[in-house]
């Protein structure tokens, strides 16, 4: 398939039909010079424009340099196609400080997330100054891209944490079939999608009138590494599993309905006089109607980071969601889930990230974050 275009009004990797593989990285900036940071963003942009088109990271490539110099590409993607690679950058709140003279540019929507009930965040795998989301159909291509950005950033940034993901847990286009998460349920049925043009304008893309003109055409991403206690889940009855989500496992249909895309009817009652979709079911609590019409564009991935030494898989969902303003979207939804969701018995949030993803790069003369500097 053709590579996704790198240049455009919005960054690729947001409404782009979700690819199957993820390598997400968060960097800390180690230089305190603004000029170094800008230069790095320019170098990264040039490399990203090449990598996403299936080319090597640098103009010489993995084997085109004089033998005494280190190559400007690491080589493990030689011979592989672009594989649908997208690279999406975001800036964390910690970047907006006096090191770079950016104190006044921090968007109001990039407000620190509140502490949510039940979360057990590990600081070493949370936050960071700059994130890059690499998505591709081939994990080798996604990892190659992140590795080369880290290589280019040597001396200016260091990797704070990174996460691999497989098996997208969302559809972001109606042309895609809904995939399944590691609990075995279809995930992404009621997601914001590429085709929802009006909702994307209202709920996904930041606008100049939101207060930070430099973010116009950008979006805010929240990441949450959510560990699943799959061993406990696997001993839960099918009926219980379906009640927790409010959808059936086979089709993904709302309980009481037949087909996946049948509309949710929260008033409909079953033979026992109780609503088919229980008051504490995940889809009821997360639905826009329960959260001031807040929508999210979810773009998460499954992860299995081996096992935990205690005989359990270190598995779960690396949740990624894009939106126009997390204060009005992710925060209220997650507050309601953290308080009431029956799913909480089987999950634990262990990392968190929040980043402002700037608008797209217009052309070869433009660079990631130019409107901020
Ligand atoms: C819907 C799974 C965490 C927000 C769903 C659905 C499933 C699911 C199976 C139904 C299908 C669909 O419409 O996509 C999970 C799992 C989670 C998780 C396994 C954790 C491991 C979260 C979190 C949020 C969230 C942290 C946001 C704070 C939503 C939303 C919907 C949804 C907005 C759509 C509700 C609707 O409009 O019908 N989730 N989810 N989920 N989830 Fe989650």
UniProtKB/TrEMBL annotation:
<protein>
    <recommendedName>
        <fullName>Deferrochelatase</fullName>
        <ecNumber>1.11.1.-</ecNumber>
    </recommendedName>
</protein>
<keyword id="KW-0408">Iron</keyword>
<feature type="domain" description="Dyp-type peroxidase C-terminal">
    <location>
        <begin position="178"/>
        <end position="361"/>
    </location>
</feature>
<keyword id="KW-0732">Signal</keyword>
<dbReference type="InterPro" id="IPR006311">
    <property type="entry name" value="TAT_signal"/>
</dbReference>
<keyword id="KW-0349">Heme</keyword>
<keyword id="KW-0456">Lyase</keyword>
<dbReference type="InterPro" id="IPR048327">
    <property type="entry name" value="Dyp_perox_N"/>
</dbReference>
<feature type="domain" description="Dyp-type peroxidase N-terminal">
    <location>
        <begin position="11"/>
        <end position="166"/>
    </location>
</feature>
<dbReference type="InterPro" id="IPR048328">
    <property type="entry name" value="Dyp_perox_C"/>
</dbReference>
<dbReference type="InterPro" id="IPR006314">
    <property type="entry name" value="Dyp_peroxidase"/>
</dbReference>
<dbReference type="Pfam" id="PF04261">
    <property type="entry name" value="Dyp_perox_N"/>
</dbReference>
<keyword id="KW-0479">Metal-binding</keyword>
<keyword id="KW-0560">Oxidoreductase</keyword>
<dbReference type="InterPro" id="IPR006313">
    <property type="entry name" value="EfeB/EfeN"/>
</dbReference>
<comment type="similarity">
    <text>Belongs to the DyP-type peroxidase family.</text>
</comment>
<comment type="function">
    <text>Involved in the recovery of exogenous heme iron. Extracts iron from heme while preserving the protoporphyrin ring intact.</text>
</comment>
<dbReference type="Pfam" id="PF20628">
    <property type="entry name" value="Dyp_perox_C"/>
</dbReference>
<keyword id="KW-0575">Peroxidase</keyword>
<dbReference type="InterPro" id="IPR011008">
    <property type="entry name" value="Dimeric_a/b-barrel"/>
</dbReference>
């Amino acid at each position: 398939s053709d590579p996704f275009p790198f240049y455009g009004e919005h960054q690729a990797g947001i409404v782009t039909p979700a690819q199957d593989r993820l390598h997400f990285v968060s960097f800390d900036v180690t230089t305190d010079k603004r000029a170094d940071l800008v230069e790095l963003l320019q170098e990264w942009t040039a490399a990203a424009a090449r990598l996403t088109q299936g080319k090597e990271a640098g103009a010489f490539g993995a084997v085109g340099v004089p033998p005494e110099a280190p190559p400007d590409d690491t080589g493990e993607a030689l011979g592989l196609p672009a594989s649908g690679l997208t690279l999406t950058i975001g800036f964390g709140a910690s970047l907006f400080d006096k090191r770079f003279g950016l104190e006044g540019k921090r968007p109001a929507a990039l407000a620190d997330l509140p502490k949510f009930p039940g979360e057990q965040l590990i600081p070493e795998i949370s936050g960071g100054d700059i994130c890059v989301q690499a998505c591709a159909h081939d994990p080798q291509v996604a990892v190659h891209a992140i590795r080369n950005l880290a290589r280019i950033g040597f001396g200016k940034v260091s990797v704070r944490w990174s996460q691999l993901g497989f098996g997208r847990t969302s559809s972001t286009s109606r042309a895609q079939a809904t995939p399944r998460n590691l609990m075995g349920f279809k995930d992404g049925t009621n997601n914001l999608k590429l085709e929802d043009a009006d909702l994307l304008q209202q709920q996904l893309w930041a606008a100049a009138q939101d207060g930070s003109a430099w973010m116009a055409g950008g979006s805010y991403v929240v990441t949450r590494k959510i560990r699943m206690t799959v061993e406990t889940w696997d001993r839960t009855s099918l009926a219980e599993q379906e009640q927790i989500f409010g959808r059936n496992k086979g089709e993904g249909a709302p309980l009481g309905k037949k087909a996946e895309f049948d509309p949710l009817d929260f008033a409909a009652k079953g033979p026992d006089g109780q609503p088919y979709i229980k008051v504490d079911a995940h889809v009821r609590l997360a639905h826009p109607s329960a959260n001031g019409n807040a929508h999210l564009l979810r773009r998460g991935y499954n992860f299995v980071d081996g096992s935990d030494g205690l005989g359990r898989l270190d598995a779960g969902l690396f949740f990624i969601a894009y939106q126009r303003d997390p204060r009005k979207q992710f925060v209220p939804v997650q507050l309601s889930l953290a308080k009431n969701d029956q799913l909480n018995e089987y999950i634990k949030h262990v990392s968190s990230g929040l980043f402002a993803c700037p608008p797209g790069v217009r052309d070869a003369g433009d660079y990631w974050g130019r409107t901020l500097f």
